[in-house]
Amino acid sequence: MLSAIAFRIDAYWFATWAIAIPNILLIGTLVFLVTTLTRSLLASYVVLILILVLQATVSALVDPEDIALLSLLNPFGQVAISEITRYWTPFEMNEQVMPMAGSLLYNHPVSVGIDPFNKMIDRNPDDNVTRVSEAEE
C-alpha cells in the first residue's frame, strides 16, 4: 500500500525555495518599504491590494506574442510558470518537476534588481560623509 503513494520531496522543495520564499521576501520587502516610508498601516494594506490587482491583471493579459516579455516583468513568476508548462500534458504536470531554466530562472533576480546593469549601487560609500569639523565651519 505504501508503494502506491508517490511522495516526491523534490517537488515540494522546488515549490518552496524557487517560488514561495522569493515571493514572500519580495512582497514583504515592498510592504515594509511602504510602511517605513509612509508610517501608515493603511498604506501597507493599499500596497497589498495593489499587488493582488497587479498580479491578477498581468495573468489576465498573457498573450502568446508577449509571454516572453511578461514572464520577465511579472515579479511573482506566475507568467513564467505558465510559459514553461503551457504545452505539458496532464501526465507531465503530475509527474514532472518544473525545470529552473529559461524565463523562470531570470524572473526573480531581474524583479529584485540583481542584474549586471544595476547602477543604483553606491560605489563610493564615503562620498556622502561630512566631517563634523567641516559642518561647523
Task: Report what the structure shows.
By secondary structure, this protein is mainly α. The protein is 62% helix and 0% strand. Helix 3 runs antiparallel to helix 4 (78-84) and helix 3 crosses helix 6 (103-112).
Q: What is the H/E order?
A: HHHHHHH
- How much of the sequence is in beta strands? under 5%
Distance between the termini: 83 Å
Kindly give the count of domains: 1
- Poorly predicted spans: 115-119
- Kindly state the number of beta strands: 0
- Count of alpha and pi helical runs: 7
Structural classification: mainly alpha
Radius of gyration, in Å, reads 21 Å
The biggest sheet, with number of strands, parallel, antiparallel or mixed sense and barrel status, is:
none
Tell me the helix content.
55-70%
The shape, in one word, is elongated
Topology overview:
Blueprint: H1 9-38, H2 41-60, H3 67-73, H4 78-84, H5 90-95, H6 103-112, H7 132-136
Helix pairs in contact: 1-2, 3-4, 3-6
